Amino acid sequence: MQNFDTKQFTNQFESMFFGPARAYAALSVDYTEKLVNAQLDAGKAYTDTGLAQLRSLLNVKDAEGLKSYMEGQQKVAKDLTERLKDDAEKVVSLQQDFVQQSQKLTEDNVKQATDTATKAAK
Fold first, then answer.
1. What pLDDT score was predicted for residue 1?
2. What does the alpha-carbon distance between residue 98 and residue 35 come to, in Å, rounded to a whole number?
3. Is pLDDT at 63 greater than 70 in this prediction?
4. Where is the Phasin domain (predicted)?
5. Phi/psi zone of residue 83: left (φ > 0), alpha (ψ -120 to 50 degrees), beta?
């Protein structure tokens, strides 16, 4: 009768299933945290801009003040467009980084599983 080595089985199960699952979960949590922080930063910036514009509008008292406010709207629109572009680029960069890290993790796990299977077959 052959003895069953539970420690070896546990180590193989850890290296083939639980370890990779934990690594992917950690990567996913890191990505989610970065994405949520980027969204919160963007939301705060847009809210601050909107509130600043409302305050500026409340300070309009005459035609000259309205003209000045309207001219300022062009700069605000330009700044918001730039901010939107930068935020979109940031999200795309985060997604690309996540995909690259996921692919590397998958490649490493496949290599490790192949090595483990080869050793077990010997």
1. 47
2. 11
3. yes
4. 17-110
5. alpha
